[in-house]
Specification:
The structure holds 2 protein chains of 2 kinds.
Chain A: H1 17-46, H2 59-84, H3 88-117, E1 119-124, E2 129-137, E3 149-157, H4 164-175, H5 180-183, E4 188-193, E5 197-202, H6 209-236, H7 242-245, H8 247-277
Antiparallel strand pairs in A: 1-2, 1-5, 2-3, 3-4
Chain B: H1 3-9, H2 20-45, H3 52-74, H4 82-105
Helix pairs in contact in B: 2-3
The chains are: A alpha+beta, B mainly alpha.
Amino acid sequence: MDIPYTVEARPDTGLYNAKVGIWLFLASEVMLFGALFSSYILLRVGSQEGYWPHGWLNIPLGTANTLVLITSSITTVMAWASLKMNQFNRFKLFHACTICLALVFVCIKSYEYHDKFTHYSVSLADGNMADGHLIEKSPDFDLAHKTGFVVLHGQKLELAGKSAEARDIEMRKVNDLHSPEARGVHLEEVKIPAAQIASMESYGPWHNTYTAIYFTLTGLHALHVIAGALVIGFLWGPGSKLWRTDPERFTNRIEISGLFWHFVDLVWIFLFPVLYLL
Amino acid sequence: MDAHQSAAANHPAPALDPHFAHHVRRYLYVFYALIFGTLITVGASYIPWGNREINIGVALFIAVCKASLVAGYFMHLISERKMVYGIMAFTAFFFIGLMFLTLGALNDFPRHTITH
């Protein structure tokens, strides 16, 4: 059975069917990310003054990932343009670059996630706090039985016995890394016996509102990158056989997958300044 | 010529555009603009404008410009059919509505909330 309008345009829409389909799908994607963006705005604007974290993300890495996605967008459009110009080998080359760039993006993102999951906030039994990256956990470390110790590369925060205002100023050392208080901090190795730890948690999505919305937005976006790379990978590999039998239809498939990929890039264009810079 | 190309040569080739090289050049210009926009975004975030709202405004303005370039040229929205414009206009309407709902909710507080 032949599927109609895979190549030629439908008279009423002026488009081949897959193009109508992808634009409808992208419309639903706009609303999905739109809902999350509006949640972000509401959470951020609604947060108490001075409590929204700043400088928690690595700007050079975020910039690198932005450049990676932009470059993958140009290789995607060039892959499609190569097919339009009947240059299959160039298409293969450009989309091989797209897939590699997608992998680079995911690797950088994974590194950033790893950085957050190894960053701990430790509440101490004496009312103070410690904050930093976990560099050692003794083999017998057990928080429930209070045995062993952890070593962080970070800092101790003196909070016990201070007024609420003084505590807020001290907390700026971890909450706002652009603040003068944070700039004056010298990070060092902090060894903490389990007996002194009241509770500890990593900077995962559960840590606070900021990490929750950060992981939700970037996690959903990363899933889109992975899904897009899988589709492009299929069309680059086994799916490219279609070029032999129906080149126009294959070119259209590349255009459709490209539209999705550009959308993923477009979402990141907003995510980067909103999460990393502002 | 490899097997793919020779096979493709036996079939009707995709609608070839003799002026496609012109499009490719345009894509490259857009690419350079996007790279430039990214660097400007990062640079602008370090400028102390004196007011965080200005920082947010500048960053979002550049992001909108970059997004317009991607949508307009890479996604070909600049020369699409009416059907696509219709879908996008419909989406834009609800997207903007969603953002205004959020803005409208900013001053809402549960009953009996003490605000200073």
